[in-house]
Amino acid sequence: MSLNIVGLSAHFHDSACSLLRDGALVAAAQEERFTRRKNEPDIPRAAFRYCLAEAGLTITDIDCLAYYESPRKKLERQLWMGLPDVVPLRATAMFQLDSRRPERDIREVLGYEGRLEFVEHHPAHAASSFYFSGFEEAAILTVDAVGEWATTTYGAGRGTSLDIFEEVHFPDSLGMLYSAITAYLGFEVNEGEYKVMGLAPYGRPRYVDQVRELIEVGAGGQFTLRMKYFDFLRHDRMFSPALVELFGQPPREPESPLTPFAEDVARSMQVVLEDVLLDKVRYLHSRVPVDNLCLAGGVALNCVANARILREGPFRRLFIQPAAGDAGCSLGAAALAHIRLTNQRPTPSPLRHVYLGPRVQPDDVAALFRDCPDRVQDFRGRESELLRATAARLAKGAVVGWCHGRMELGPRALGARSILADPRDPNMRDRINAAVKQREAFRPFAPAVLAHRAREHFDLDHPSPFMLETSQVISPLALPAITHVDRSARVQTVDADSCPRFYGLLTEFERQTGCPILLNTSFNLRGEPIVCTPLEALLCFIRSDMDSLVIDDVLLDRAALPASWLARLRGTAPPPAAPVSATVYTLL
Amino acid sequence: MPDRPDASLIPLVRRLAELLDSDAGTQVMALMQKLVLLSASGASRTVTGEAAPVDRAVAPSAIPAADAVVPSPSAQPQRVGIWTRGADHAPWTRNPALKNQWRFWADIDEIPAKGARRRVLLLGESVARGYLFDPWLTPALVLERMLNDALGDGSFEVVDLARTDLTFRELVPLLLETPALEPDAIVLFAGNNWENVNLSMREFQLLATALRAGGFPACQRAFIDQVLVPASRAVLDLLAATVQTLGIPAVVVVPEVNLREWRNDAAALAPTLTGGGNRVWLGLWARAQAEFANERYEHAAALLREMIELDGGTGSPPQALLGECLLHLGRRSEARAALEAARDAVCGIFIRHAPLCPSAVQTVQRDKAAQHGLAMVDLSRVFTDHLHGELPDRRLFLDYCHLTREGIHLAMAATAAQLAPRLGRAVTPVGRFLRVDMPMSPSCLAMSHFLAAIHNAHYGQDKAVLEHHCREALASSADIAEVMRDYLDFQIRRAPNWMCRSYERIKDLGAAELRAVDRYLSPEDAGTVDKFADFALVDCIERALRDAGVEVEPWLSEHIRREHVGDDVNLLATRYRAATFWERSGHSTALPRAYHQACTPVSTFFLIRDDSAAVTLRLTCRVRGSEPVPDHSIVRVNGVDVARVPAHATWGTHAIAVPRGCLRAGVNRIDIHWPIHTPPCPDDLERAASNLERCVFPDVLPVFGEIFMARSAP
Q: In this complex, is the C-beta atom of B438 within 8 Å of any C-beta atom belonging to chain A?
């Protein structure tokens, strides 16, 4: 009999479910991939069912379900932040001061009857990193918007133990600071932070003083936000008029043209964030003087800051699991529950990959194309031919949708649900941004590179399998499509063990072109979650301007698409799902 | 004010959170929030149309008071429905930005600027669209032809502003936009969807209170009397104010439904009743059905009246069967009353059901038309007269509320007769309009009947109805046989329809047919591929084709097996479990679950096999509220008992061996018979009320069993 522990994140944003079987992570997925509602906050019904089915389990096989937050402690913070109103009255507060909802949903909606463990939010973040890092000992830093009270924590992990020794409490939050600037710059909160990071290299740090005015960096691990510039305590908005006055410009209207001012503010925000993080990382090292650092929390998805922490900070090794935001808390919650039940660390091995989601089922692909076999090329049993054909298309400048194997956990496409292209093509970035992904022109793309060739092309001396840090492009090749304006790139190193077919494609592409690198971006259109199923991949392919599509062993070229499919779907968008709030963190 | 709350108060909030950390505490906090907000917000439906802050999130379609918002004749809205005003005197054109809504509206690329012709606007819902006939034949086209032909001078135009799925949310702004088209008259033909009111927080609370006081019957009464009727009145007041301001006439067409034949989904038996009443109710139901089968109609009627007493009018099946009994007994007017009650039973108790205009809305429409001096066409009366007192049936209806060609003709002739004198023409008898012919090609008529067969199947109607429409389709045009065969092809495939060549062949029939079938057979979301377990319909189509001399076997059986035979089959997948919309999405509007809830005493699954080899069924199930009474669920395969599964209140996983020979090549039926004496959980009603209090729709129907996993493997 195996020990099966389910971890859950839900009721804020990015709900997710993961499953530990005898301490090994066997399945994990975000609910948004099933409901097709980006950042889905509701209890993860489909992800829960998926995780069990993937492991061949049913609900009676679960030994424990762990939830990623303490509802009562969250209620404390909710009550405090509403003061002096004891009864919070804003629209988003209605029915949200409900500490019973997590258990109610778990019992009623999921139907789970067994042992239920609640773990706190930041320990869940910390556990999601440390217990999957493979490190025997490490310092641990978690930074996000807010959990119950904590927004930042400092801790140490050794073997089975995980000790958090210092916290920064709400409302002082680096995540909220970054999100406030994100909102000020006209991007969606909890989604547009990546855009601010991507926009930053275009600007100059001319507003560093203003950003520093927003935050007072204290001794030790502490810092304080100057709350007169923020409005998230009492209103459903992130920043106050004082912040606008401080920067001297009105907030940018969403979708309006980007100005040098916006670029400069983004750059300034990034600089200050990195400086504060470096300062706190050095403090953490003073308290936990070891070589290894584990990072977690939404801010740990800032790959530019991560690179600087590793480059300039005191730690020699850095681990971040790629679902570093709240989705990843489901991993940490399950890991902490595993320890409560067994007094043993869940797994001594580092997380090698995050291909933990639903797999492409050959039978589903066959059923999808059964009525139109002449439209596709079927390479079943002929993988090398498939890779040759795909690489040849990429070498000729094709943009290829690539849907293979099990879906990735986390916001990064890592070669399972990816859009791929030749990084040497000078027009490729603009083409994919405009015609394929239908998003802002300034946004950069990341490279995937054969792990053993990475040092030749990037200033990188260690594996980077999860695309969570940037490095400088030093390649002898011209790689305009993946080189950002500051010559940085967010690198994914690919090895043969963790993703053999993607490795095989890169190898074949190198054989044909001499370039062991592909542009790799997530397989989705703007505003849509990354595709999960073969049908979603096909729809995204038809709706966009990709040239070819590979779904496991099947290759489909745009030229072979029936005219009727194009007539029906070209230029359409997925049906809009009710968005999760884009203007403010729904703190309640 | 300090820029952050006082940190020294944290111990106090900790204590408060400790006290509030319970179900009661959560309710206390929510009630305090409500009390403050509701006492500050005043009426839930505000005169400005802007919901009070508290209600905004839950009642975005609050209906404005007519006197506050009725537009002036000189108002110049730039948009009407999906059409946008053209420059100068250019036509109104469909707004590309609203393309995802086009499918709900008439296929009219342009609405011309107002010219010399008298302009009638037809507002309404899918009935007014001519659902299943649209675009070949619509009430707007018929009305225009009748006015022009019967009155002889071609000086009328009817602008089709009907919208499928029209609710108050779309109707109110549409009414406010109508002056922009400079109408000479407005026809409102709606009411079937009016039950779909967005409830305000105050209304949710009202219903919660009623539910606690008197169960779902009281909740239903509160909904009808205090939500639906006021909202309906408000909309008719708005119509009246609009036409009075414009100085034009209006005609209110009061909808009628297919009383004689339409049956609400059999799964919606009765909501949870107080005091364990459902067990008694089900016992009576079994006895009443037996009495009816034995043609002992008086006995059956007596039992059914006991059931109605128990469910307070919230159960549709006993009312419907009572109507049948009374018809057999020759008591036609009583039968009509019972069948109207069957129609109304599902109103306002949060059970998903077909759009049906309830008596309460019909009454409001009649009363308000009289109060405001609006012309009225009461279809109930029109149809009764036409049928010489018989109840309306398939002669006038394709399904629950959508009209046949004859039904449309009657309704529009009566409307034209009301319009003629109000548009400056002589009073003209209805018969003159009825003589106006509206030709329709046999192939289009055949297609409409075939679409009706499909639509009725997905609402769980009787096989006899499906067979009727299949046969009518073939009788109208033999060419429909190819379409029916193509339907069998793409409906059975696991790929979405738009990927199937057979679907393309149907679309290639011609421009009008293309638009029609695409609208009806292609989900709005191209990513939707959840097809139904359509095996009853497939049988009907196959039989009708065979009778018409078109043989689809053995191709059909092979096609089914090729698509669906598998080693490890998830029987909870829609295509093996759900034949109707509500079986697919759930009968209740409550939060969806991660597991299947059986709201009927029997759960049915279909397993496709290519041989009779043994399989193992793996079943994780529970029977809520069954303990401490020991009982079993019975698993039947093709009518043969194969297992008795202990009924426990907690999940249990069972491996059920289905021996060789029980299954057969083709479609197999697996039934799970739940223990029907199971009383509902005593706190079900309280839980439902609590949900309403937090503006969440409640579970309504008793749950007989729940299934987390149902798989078949070798």
A: no
B232 and B375 share a domain?
yes
Q: Are strands A292-296 and A137-143 parallel, antiparallel or unpaired?
A: parallel
Question: Among candidates B85, B83, B121, which has minimal Cα distance to B99?
Answer: B83
Last residue of a domain, one of B533, B563, B593: B563
Q: At residue A498, what are phi and psi to the nearest 5 degrees? A: -80, -30
> What's the CA gap between B389 and A27, in Å, rounded?
65
Examine residue A145 and state whether it is found in any structural domain, yes or no: no
- For chain B, the domain total comes to 5
**What predicted TM-score, i.e. pTM, was given to this entire model?**
0.94
Of B322, B344, B366, the domain-final residue: B344
The tally of domains found in chain A comes to 3
Q: Which structure tokens are listed for A371?
A: 């009525």
Whole-angstrom distance between the N-terminal and C-terminal Cα of chain A?
40
Mutate to test the interface with A, among B20, B28, B505, B530 (most CBs of A within 10 A): B20
Query: Is residue A214 one of the residues assigned to a domain?
Result: yes
Chain-chain contact of A88 with B100 (C-beta, under 8 angstroms) = no
Residues B545, B478 share a domain: yes
Which residues of chain B does A99 touch, with a Cβ-Cβ cutoff of 8 Å?
Answer: 17, 20-21, 25-26
Q: Are residues A400 and A548 in the same domain?
A: yes
- Beta-carbon separation of A94 and B709 below 8 A: no
Which CATH number fits the domain that encloses residue A230? 3.30.420.40
Closest by CA position to A333, among listed A551, A565, A45, A20: A20
Q: What is the mean pLDDT of each run of 10 residues along chain A (588 residues)?
A: 96 95 97 94 97 97 98 95 83 82 96 98 98 97 95 98 97 96 92 92 96 96 96 84 96 93 97 97 98 97 95 97 96 98 93 97 94 94 98 98 97 97 95 86 92 97 94 96 95 96 98 98 93 96 95 97 88 70 48
Residue A98: which domain range?
4-132+324-351
| CB < 8 Å to B653, chain A | 58, 60-61
SS3 readout for B125-165: CHHHHCCCCCCCCCHHHHHHHHHHHHHCCCCEEEEEEEECC
Same domain, B306 and B375: no
**In terms of residue numbers, what domain contains B296?**
274-344
CA distance A164 to A297: 14
With CB atoms and an 8 Å threshold, state whether A98 touches B500: no
